């Protein structure tokens, strides 16, 4: 256990008597995977682990725990989700206790599997700027900077923007590295026809499990989602790329200017479909039109939550 | 005496191409970074090494199938009577699943008891079933998430297969297990290999020796039932669950469906699509009442169905084949093995407590 994790456990142990539950991580079925941990007792606390293998954005659980006293272990990127949830009044600040940790980057499981040529992973050891992966064929040492989640390469918030407690001990510096080409970059260089073909091809393997939606911390309709509604009937249940893409378009539009690009939608997709790119494309428009980034300031109002007669960057009247 | 033939690794693609004239061939192949069962196309290659993310179940239960098409017509004069024309669309054509794993093939027999049993016979399912041939690839290793051995199967089990392929160096020994399988092995692509039968058997024995000795999940129907009203247990079990449907859609034994009419103007089709018990709409009634209102209720049902209700109805056969796809593809790494093991422990503890 790292010093970082020890310190985190100590902080949580002090606050636990005042809280109903603390959201953290523990290891999953192997050391490459992590799973959210709901701490209510000292015994639970002993299972807590944190590090580059612990990837879920725990803030996704906060709206469902509204009204309870909740502690949450939070990285920089996750803190942006919490801020957005506060802005939208989906959670109450007084009920949330934030245990901030500084993050050196989170590992992208798919990138690890690619790097070991799909060999069956037996165990993983993270060690500062490298990770050692043992597979059924042997051992691979990978550079951390080659297997991070896309969002980590452009991360500007290694520490949470808001927090109540902060773990000081740090395991490693943020691992810099050249950002790989993102899906959005690739889409930018395509003609519209190619772009459509790209999505048609990817959506073909979508199984409509809606893990992208259910993992999204800002998808708050959940049980009343238009994807399954018969009235209105925006989508039919046919298994066609058209219907599946329509859902992605709706998801992206609903999260425009709200999405903090935490990447949970893409990470959760069991089919590995790069669904984050659509949200990033819309966020780029929001940044251009409103000079706004979601989840940076709890006091501000998201641009699509208000109405101005004359927007600074939308010259609607002039165009007329 | 079953027939055995040898299939060289490099002959697989030509053989499947040959079969493609008579069958729709489904084979595991890469799609992006993911291995899925898809229509065989030499350009996509075949992936024989990895357990596919999707099971082979779509051969029998497609994610979406048309039950019938309809068209309505209205008389032009009052009283504007509406007439409806129906066109049933029974599935036709033969399907060959190549490279199913033993878990996939066993899972299909779990469907058979439901869709082609004594109580009900689904014409769409039985048409597909009768037209399907399953060529199974025995596993040469277990993934960390595999547990077929704990639910009554094995990595080299031939149950439900028409042909079993056993990997040897440079190729596969193909053994026919049914008449359908015998027909397949008549292809000139194969080399005679009755002498390799023993070698294949040895290879399978070697695989079985690698299977760890661990506890079984069989015969625990009553255990799970005794936890039915312990909602606290299910609450804790389901805490991290996102209530998405990844586990059920990737499960080779999950067979629940939804039926909807999708109309466009005056015509449309009635379709049957995969549905999933982890969704709150699954049990939402017309009145607005939902008998499984929380994810804890839904998790109880998913685990209960696989390990208790189904076995009680069907000769103690579990509705889980231990492929582990629900574990390896879960966004929060929910591990059904842990959940079942905890349930056994909890039920045992409760029983002991009752005897105190």
From TrEMBL, chain A:
GO molecular function annotations of the record: iron-sulfur cluster binding; metal ion binding
InterPro entries noted in UniProt: 4Fe4S_Fe-S-bd, 4Fe4S_Fe_S_CS, Helical_ferredxn
SUPFAM superfamilies given in the database record: alpha-helical ferredoxin
Domain 4Fe-4S ferredoxin-type: 197-217, 250-279
Swiss-Prot/TrEMBL keywords: Iron, Iron-sulfur, Metal-binding
Name listed for the protein in its UniProt record: 4Fe-4S ferredoxin-type domain-containing protein
Species for this entry: Desulfovibrio psychrotolerans
UniProtKB/TrEMBL annotation, chain B:
Domain 4Fe-4S ferredoxin-type stretches: 232-262, 309-339
Domain of life, per lineage: Bacteria
A Gene Ontology molecular function term of the record: iron-sulfur cluster binding
Keyword Membrane assigned: no
InterPro entries linked: 4Fe4S_Fe-S-bd, 4Fe4S_Fe_S_CS
Pfam families linked: Fer4_22
Alphabetized UniProt keyword annotations: Iron, Iron-sulfur, Metal-binding
Keyword presence, Iron-sulfur: yes
UniProt-recorded name of the protein: Hydrogenase
């Amino acid at each position: 256990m790292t010093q970082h994790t020890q310190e985190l456990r100590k902080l949580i142990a002090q606050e636990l008597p005042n809280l109903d539950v603390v959201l953290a991580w523990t290891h999953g079925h192997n050391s490459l995977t992590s799973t959210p941990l709901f701490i209510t007792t000292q015994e639970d606390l002993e299972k807590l682990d944190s590090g580059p293998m612990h990837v879920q954005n725990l803030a996704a659980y906060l709206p469902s725990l509204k009204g309870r006293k909740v502690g949450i272990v939070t990285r920089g990127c996750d803190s942006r989700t919490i801020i957005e949830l506060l802005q939208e009044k989906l959670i109450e600040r007084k009920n949330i206790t934030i245990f901030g940790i500084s993050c050196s980057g989170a590992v992208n499981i798919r990138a690890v599997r690619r790097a070991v040529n799909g060999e069956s992973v037996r165990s993983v050891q993270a060690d500062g700027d490298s990770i050692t992966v043992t597979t059924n064929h042997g051992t691979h040492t990978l550079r951390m900077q080659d297997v991070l989640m896309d969002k980590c390469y452009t991360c500007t918030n290694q520490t949470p923007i808001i927090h109540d407690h902060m773990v000081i001990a740090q395991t490693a510096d943020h691992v810099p590295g050249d950002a790989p080409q993102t899906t959005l970059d690739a889409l930018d260089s395509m003609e519209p026809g190619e772009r459509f073909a790209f999505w048609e091809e990817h959506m073909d393997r979508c199984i409509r499990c809606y893990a992208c939606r259910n993992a999204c911390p800002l998808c708050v309709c959940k049980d009343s989602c238009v994807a399954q509604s018969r009235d209105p009937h925006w989508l039919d249940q046919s298994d066609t790329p058209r219907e599946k893409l329509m859902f992605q378009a709706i998801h992206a539009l609903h999260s425009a200017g709200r999405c903090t690009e935490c990447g949970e939608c893409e990470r959760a997709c069991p089919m590995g479909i790069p669904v984050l790119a659509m949200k990033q494309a819309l966020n780029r428009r929001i940044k251009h039109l409103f000079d706004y980034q979601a989840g940076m300031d709890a006091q501000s109002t998201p641009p699509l939550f208000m109405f101005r007669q004359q927007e600074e960057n939308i010259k609607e009247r002039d165009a007329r | 005496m079953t027939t055995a033939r040898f299939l060289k690794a490099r002959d697989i693609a030509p053989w499947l191409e040959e079969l493609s004239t008579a069958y729709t061939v489904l084979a595991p192949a890469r799609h992006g970074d993911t291995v899925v069962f898809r229509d065989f196309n030499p350009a996509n290659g075949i992936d024989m090494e990895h357990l596919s993310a999707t099971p082979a179940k779509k051969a029998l239960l497609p994610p979406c199938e048309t039950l019938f098409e309809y068209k309505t017509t209205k008389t032009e004069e009052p009283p504007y009577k509406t007439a409806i024309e129906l066109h049933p669309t029974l599935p036709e054509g033969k399907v060959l699943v190549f490279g199913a794993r033993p878990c996939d093939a066993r899972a299909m027999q779990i469907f058979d008891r439901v869709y082609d049993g004594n109580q009900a016979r689904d014409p769409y399912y039985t048409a597909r079933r009768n037209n399907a041939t399953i060529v199974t690839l025995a596993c040469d290793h277990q993934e960390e998430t595999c547990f077929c051995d704990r639910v009554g199967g094995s990595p080299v089990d031939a149950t439900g297969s028409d042909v079993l392929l056993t990997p040897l160096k440079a190729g596969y020994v193909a053994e026919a297990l049914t008449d359908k399988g015998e027909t397949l092995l008549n292809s000139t692509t194969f080399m005679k290999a009755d002498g390799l039968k023993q070698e294949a058997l040895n290879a399978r024995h070697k695989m079985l020796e690698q299977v760890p000795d661990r506890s079984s999940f069989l015969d625990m129907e009553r255990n799970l039932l005794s936890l039915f009203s312990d909602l606290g247990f299910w609450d804790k079990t389901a805490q991290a669950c996102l209530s998405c449907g990844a586990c059920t859609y990737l499960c080779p034994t999950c067979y629940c469906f939804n039926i909807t009419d999708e109309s466009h103007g005056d015509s449309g089709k009635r379709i049957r699509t995969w549905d999933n018990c982890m969704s709150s709409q699954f049990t939402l009634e017309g009145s607005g009442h939902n008998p499984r209102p929380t994810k804890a209720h839904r998790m109880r049902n998913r685990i209960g169905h696989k390990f208790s209700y189904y076995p009680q109805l069907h000769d103690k056969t579990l509705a889980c084949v231990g492929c582990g796809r629900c574990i390896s593809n879960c966004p929060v790494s929910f591990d059904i093995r842990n959940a079942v093991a905890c349930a056994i422990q909890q039920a045992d503890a409760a029983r002991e407590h009752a005897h105190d």
